[in-house]
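Go through this chain for my students:
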Amino acid sequence: MNQPLLDAAHSGTYRATRARETHAAARAQGLRIARIACTGLGGKAALLRELAATLRFPAWFGGNWDALEDCLTDLSWMPAPGYLILIQCSGRLAHDEFAVLRDVLDASAQFWSAHGKPFYAVFVAGPESLPELGGASPA
């Protein structure tokens, strides 16, 4: 891993081929880690449910993209020096759903970067259109 994960300037949406290495690096640097495996079926709905459960979203979470962005740019109930969301199920989303998810994650990363706190969303074996974590900065 070429970049320190505590550098908020590198916050963004990435892909990684080695989930264990990414998890270990984030843990070693004290980031709060949320591992999203999407074990059930259901695409967007299942992903949003798992994100809400894993990140312990408040009861007001509405289960939609806007509410996801609202929660990801708050996280006051989970104070941490930074955040890593490790997503291992992007292939279960329709193309348009993945595009919206990426937009939400990118906006959240920009929010946290502007506040000096690292925020990474990493898709394990994600699409080639995403930069590799530890390589170039996200687009």
